Amino acid sequence: MGGPSGGPGVEPGSTAHVVTQSHSSAPRSRDREAELRDYRAAFAVARSAMALIAPDGVVLAGNGALGTLLGTSPERMSSLDADTLLGLTGDPHARAVFREVAAGKRDRLRCTRLLTRPDGSSLRAELTLSRTGGARPLLLTVEDVGERDALREQLRHLAMHDPVTRLPNRALFFERLAAACEAAAGAGAGSGRVGLCYLDLDGFKAVNDTLGHRIGDALLAAVAGRLLACAQPGGHLVARLGGDEYALLLRESTGTGQATALAESVLTAFQQPFDVAGHRLAVSASIGVVEREAAGTSPTGLMQAADTTLYWAKADGKARWTLFDPERNEHRMTRQALSRTLRQAIERGEFVLDYQPLVALDTGELRGVEALVRWEHPHFGRLPPGRFIGLAEEDGSIVQLGRWVLAESCRQARAWQRAHPGTALVVSVNVAVRQVWDSDLVADVAAILAETGLPPRLLQLELTESALMGSAGRPLQALHALHEMGVRIAIDDFGTGYSNLAYMSRLPVSALKLDGSFVQGFRSAEHPNPADETIVEALVQLAHRLGLTVTAECVESAEQAERLRRIGCDTGQGWHWSRPVGADAISRLLA
Ligand code: C2E
Ligand code: MG
Ligand code: MG
C-alpha cells in the first residue's frame, strides 16, 4: 500500500467535525472527496510522527515524519505489522494491551520503547495508540523522548549533586542510604549490614572567614578528592551533606572493622596538608562511625546515631573517629529523661538522704555525719548524686533540692540531738555554688535553724574550692553572715582545684575535707609513697596553723586510717568505718 492513501474507512478524528461544519452548506459528495484529500495531505506533512493501524495489527499508513523518525520510508512501513513497528514482539504485556485497544476494550495504550532503526541506531520513543471510534483504524503517534529524557536526567543530576565538589548531595545521599538499608535488609545473599562514616572538618569556618569563600570552596573540593581516593569505587558512596559535612556510605558492610578502617584511612589521608590556591592548609576531620544490621534500621535512625557519634568525636577532642556506643547513647537519653522530670520529683518527694559517719581518728568517736542525697527514681531505681546533681545545677532546680536537703538534714540532726543530748553530732551538708548565687542561702539557713531548733554549731556547710575561689560580693557576704550565725563552713574535695590556701585562710572557713585522691595515693604499706604522705602532712600542719580542722575522705583501710592519724588529721570518713547509710543505722550507732 502506498502512502497515506490508506485502507478503507480512514476517517478523521475530532477535527473532522469542525471542518465538516464549516462546509455544511456545500454539496455533500464534493465535500467528502475534498475533505479526504485535505486529511491525507495534512497526515502526510504533519510534523508529528503518526501511523494508522488496522485492528488486526496491519499498518495501513505511516506519515513522512514517522518515516524520518524510524529511518525508513512511508512505503516500507505499510508492509510491516504493528508488533514489529512498535517493538512489541518481546513484550507480551504490551501486546495484550494492544489487542485490548484493538478490540475496543480499552481506549489507549501508551508506552515508552527503545526502537532500533534499520541502520542499527536506536531511539527512545513514547508510543500512543488511540482508538478513533468503532471499527475504524487505530491512530498511532510516536514521539522521540530521548532528548527530553536526557535533559531530565541532566536536571536530576544537577538537583542531586553539589556544584562545589561534584559529589552527590544530601538528597541523593538519603535516596541511596534508604536503598542501601532496604537492599541490605532484604538480601539473603549480602552481608545484611550498612555502615556510615559521618565527617565534619575541624576549623573549616576559620579558613572560610580568613581566606574567603573562594578558597574555602576550593578546599572543600580538594577534600572531596581525598575522600574519593579513600573510597572503594562501587562499594562506597561519598557525598557532601552541606557545609563542611561529608558522608561515606558503606553498602553491604562486612562489619564494624571495615567502617572504622575506612575512617582511619580518611584520617591518614588528612595528615598531608592541602595545597589550595597557593595556600598550604592543615585540616583535620572528626568522624562519627555507625555500623549495624540493616534490618530494623531506618535511614533517619542511622543518621541520628551518626550525628550523635560525630558530636562525641568532636567533644572527645576532634581529629579522630568515634564508634557509636549504644550505652553512651542510652546514658544521654536517660540524662534527658532525668532532667525533664527533676522538678516534679522534688515536689513528689522522690529524694532521700543517706548519712556517712565522720570519725575522730585519735579516739574513734563519732563526730558527725555527711548528708548525701539519693533519688528513688520510679523507673531507674536508686540513683547516686553523680547522676543528677550536675543536671540540677544546670537547670537551677538545685536551689529547690538543696533547700529540701538542708531542711531534712537539720530536722534529722535535731532529732538525734534530742535523743542523745550528751553527744554533739555535726551534720555536714553539701551546698552547690548556684545555691549561694541564686537563692538567699543565709535566709534559708536561718529559717530552717529556727524551725528545727538545731543549734547552728551542729550544722556544717560543704562548699567546693571552685565555689569559694574568687568569691567576692554576694557569696563572700553570705559566708561571713553564716559564720557569724555560728554555722561551720568546710571546703569539700580540697586539693582537686587550684586552691590557694593563703587566700582560703582569709575566708571564714572552719574545716578542710581532703579529697579522696590524696588518701588513695598512700598506696599499701609495702609500697608507701612518701611524696604523698609528705604533702598531706604539710597540708595538715598548715591548715592547723590557720585554725582549720582536717577531715580525710575515702578512707578505706585501717592502715590508711592509722597513717592519717600519725600525720595529724583530725577526722576521717570512708568505707573503713561505714558506707553512707540510712538515718536509722546512724541512730543505732548513737545508741
Ligand atoms: P562528696 O561531698 O565528696 O561526698 C563523698 C562521696 O564519696 C560520696 O559519694 C560518698 O559515698 C563517697 N565515699 C565515701 N566514702 C568512700 C570511700 O571510702 N571510698 C570511695 N571510693 N568513696 C567514698 P556520693 O554519695 O556518690 O556523692 C557524690 C557527690 O555528690 C558528693 O561528693 C557531693 O559533691 C555530691 N552531693 C551529694 N549529696 C549532695 C547534696 O545534697 N547537695 C549537693 N549540692 N551535692 C551533693
Ligand atoms: Mg561533701
Ligand atoms: Mg568530698
Largest sheet: 8 strands, mixed, barrel
Radius of gyration: 43 Å
CATH class of the largest domain: Alpha Beta
Q: State the low-pLDDT regions, or none.
A: 1-24
If you average the pLDDT, what whole number results? 87
Percent of sequence in beta strands:
15-25%
Supply the helix-strand structural class.
alpha/beta
**Helix proportion of residues, in percent?**
40-55%
Morphology call: elongated
Oligomer: single chain
End-to-end span in angstroms?
123 Å
Q: Would you identify the CATH H-level superfamily of the largest domain? A: EAL domain
Q: Give the total of beta strands.
A: 21
Written overview of the protein:
By secondary structure, the chain is of the alpha/beta class. It has 3 domains: 31-148, Beta-Lactamase (2-Layer Sandwich), CATH 3.30.450; 161-324, Alpha-Beta Plaits, CATH 3.30.70.270; 336-590, Alpha-Beta Barrel (TIM Barrel), CATH 3.20.20. Helices cover 46% and strands 22% of the residues. The chain contains 24 helices and 21 strands. Strand 13 and strand 14 (366-377) form a beta hairpin. Helix 9 (204-211) packs antiparallel against helix 10 (213-230) and helix 17 packs parallel to helix 19 (473-485). The longest helix has 23 residues, at 326-348. 33% of the residues are buried. The model is unreliable at 1-24 (pLDDT under 50). Bound molecules: ligand C2E and magnesium ion (MG) (2 copies). One magnesium ion (MG) binds next to strand 18.
